[in-house]
Specification:
The protein has helices spanning 14-20, 41-48, 61-71, 83-95, 111-118, 138-148, 168-177, 234-241, 251-261, 266-287, 307-315, 340-353; strands spanning 28-29, 78-81, 101-106, 122-127, 152-156, 181-185, 210-215, 228-231, 291-293, 300-303, 319-320, 322-323, 332-335. With 354 residues, it is an alpha/beta fold. The longest helix is centred in the C-terminal third of the chain and has 22 residues, at 266-287. It holds the Pfam family Aminotran_1_2.
Amino acid sequence: MDTLDRVVHGALDSAELAALGIAPDRVIDFSSNLNPFGPPPAVHTALATLDPTPYPDRHCLRVRTILAERHGCALDQVLAGNGTNELIYLIAQALGEPGATALILAPTYGEYEHASRLARMQVVEVRAPASDGFRFDEQALIEAVQHIRPRLIWLCAPNNPTGTSLPPSIIGDLASACDGFLVADRAYYAFQRDLHDGRDPLDGTAAPNLIRLYSLTKSYALAGLRFGYLIAHPEVATHIGRFQPAWSVNSAAQAAGLAALTDAVFLPATLPRLWSASDDLVAGLHRLGLYVWRAALPFMLVRCGNGATVRTRLLHLGCIVRDCASFGLPEWVRVAPRRPEENARLIAAWKEIV
């Protein structure tokens, strides 16, 4: 396969469904890691009253001000983007160097590799094996960083698709061991169970080469609007921002982000319900005799022999899961829990093909 081929993702593919003669409204999407109880009501209100005529605020000032207060950092450390995906490519373009090494802690999100290769970097993977619970030997990882000396390290923590993570202290050690930049993707941080106040312990990390990515897409269910942000040293954030087109974050995304971030009730109310739905779905899959792996996040991996075949068969029964072959895990599918009645439909469909 061409190393510059587009990255495989979950979610419904309209072209695929049209080719199969399947109506999108007849399919439940278990392949996207989103909060099934969102978006917050305030988001709908904000969008209903939005005037689309003016250009958006090119600096995203109001949303960035709230984010800076939430993370306890300076305003010029926060750069908003059209989803974290845009920021991944901006980082690779701004900080990557042709011929330099990008180290990816795998299996993980495919856009890190794609962005690095577009920046003409050499990509090296360190993989956490399923046999060890998809966990890294932390000391060996630090030694690998010292040996490889990458320009960029891509770390998804907590990780997609495995749900595993690294302690904040180890993330700090990795940054200290790295001569280049450590990009810690925290898109799924807020999804973890029993977070006390939602604050990230990495907010207290002062490493100047640490870049953190966050997303409102997952926990607030704003995938269609695209809003992400990074936190970095002011000079690093400013440099990355020079590569960003003007008006990258549209007015609807900014209005929705502002409404979501000022809603103090939504996440405490919905995340326990999401985890309860996840627990019930794990139990239902176990009753079918399936092996389920779940770590720090509500989505799970299910070992099923041939992930592509299982995905296709479930799709024809009205449920779509994420085939994990693109992660290097062809025997697995990833399943994101949805509302209880939808999860019951998945269990019923899976029972037909076991």
